[in-house]
DNA sequence: ACCCACACGTGAGGC
DNA sequence: TGCCTCACGTGTGGG
């Protein structure tokens, strides 16, 4: 835009030489830079190259200025210092965000990790050769802790609930999760008042119920 | 480091003038820049100012180079283009991180927001006249989050499971707890494939189911 | 020898 | 007016 044309450049060079040396007796050089009939005029070889270099650098500075939103001045120096402050701000923001994200992931990844663990457990179970797992532990005289893993099929859970209810087993606290291809049920169950609770019997009963459900839904 | 001292600078300037004009008759200028006894030597007024400006700009460029870790070359132009690419990379990283964070927050905040939305639904439930509480929030296009509080009565939970199963509702994750006189069920449910999921319909359906169960077990 | 990048001093122009 | 920034052409040193 404010670039002078070639002639004016040459003229400026001449003026520069004149002002530098204050020589008035020298004849004026030709307007065309490529003329070399006048051997007094020295033309540097890397004139255009230097011109391209300056142009490229200016373009890059303009690009640098264009991508950061915080600009205080159009100056060549302030472009750089603005870029520096912007880079620092971005670095701090990245650090803050990654830290925040990491912190937030730490809380929500526990479930994912647990799920992954369960998936692995299910995979291990398939290696183990049995599709259903029943574990029973006694909590107190009429409470049991139960863990059940069965194949995931529609309606099995409600049937299991119904069967347990029919056998007088009451679920106190239950946690029920589906992972790919399996139900995982952990529950604290309680037998009816008056009935005696024996861990092996309960486990057999649970296995019978599960077998019944599995055979019916096959 | 490769900065020449003042004397050499002056000498370079003299050499530059000599080479430019090829004047051999002129006497050599003094080494000190501030001498002006030789009036032939033209000294621009903004020489030191320009020198400070260049020095400052060079320093800022070095600072700009020092804060970005990715440097391909020591060149003045590559410093700028490296800064540009680094800023772009930082911008993308900030955008990615914030988006990820926002997305992660949305999963945990959606339930809260939905809960707030459903609170007035719960208020409507009191008009319905039954002690049961049903809250429904949408997780994604075919998943709902459900919270149910009903009176604790034997077999209600299994009946509820059965009813839900009959209506094509599948329980993915369920947490079931009995406290004094009540069942508390929170569950992530999923409708059958092909069925469309509408939150108010699902809530009405749940309310009907619970109402039916409650009336039958009265 | 060439090429490239940089520093230099200076004029032009804007405020 | 002065101050400040920029573009210019050139010399120079390193590869």
TrEMBL record, chains A, B:
Q: Which residues form a coiled coil?
A: 80-114
Q: What's a single GO BP term from this record?
A: regulation of DNA-templated transcription
Question: Which compartments does it reside in?
Answer: Nucleus
Organism phylogeny:
Eukaryota, Viridiplantae, Streptophyta, Embryophyta, Tracheophyta
What keywords are assigned to this protein?
Coiled coil, Nucleus, Transcription, Transcription regulation
Q: Which Pfam families match?
A: bHLH-TF_ACT-like_plant (PF22754), HLH (PF00010)
Which coarse location class applies to the principal site listed for this UniProt protein?
Answer: nucleus
Organism of origin: Glycine max (Soybean)
Domain of life (superkingdom): Eukaryota
Protein name, per record:
BHLH domain-containing protein
């Amino acid at each position: 835009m404010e670039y002078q044309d070639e002639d004016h450049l040459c003229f400026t060079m001449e003026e520069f030489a004149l002002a530098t040396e204050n020589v008035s007796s020298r004849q004026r050089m030709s307007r065309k830079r490529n003329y070399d009939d006048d051997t007094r005029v020295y033309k540097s070889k890397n004139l255009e190259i230097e011109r391209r270099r300056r142009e490229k650098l200016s373009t890059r500075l303009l690009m640098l200025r264009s991508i950061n939103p915080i600009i205080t001045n159009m100056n060549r120096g302030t472009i750089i210092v603005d870029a520096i402050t912007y880079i620092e701000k971005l670095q701090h923001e990245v650090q803050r965000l990654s830290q925040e994200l990491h912190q937030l992931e730490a809380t929500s990844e526990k479930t994912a990790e647990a799920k992954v663990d369960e998936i692995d457990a299910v995979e291990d179970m398939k290696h183990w050769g049995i599709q259903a797992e029943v574990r029973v532990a006694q909590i107190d005289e009429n409470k049991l802790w139960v863990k059940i893993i069965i194949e995931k099929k529609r309606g099995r859970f409600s049937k299991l609930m119904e069967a347990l209810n029919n056998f007088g087993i009451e679920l106190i606290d239950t946690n029920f999760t589906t992972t790919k291809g399996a139900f995982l049920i952990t529950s604290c169950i309680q037998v009816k008042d008056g009935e005696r609770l024996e861990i092996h019997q309960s486990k057999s009963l649970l296995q019978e119920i599960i077998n019944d459900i599995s055979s019916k839904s096959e």
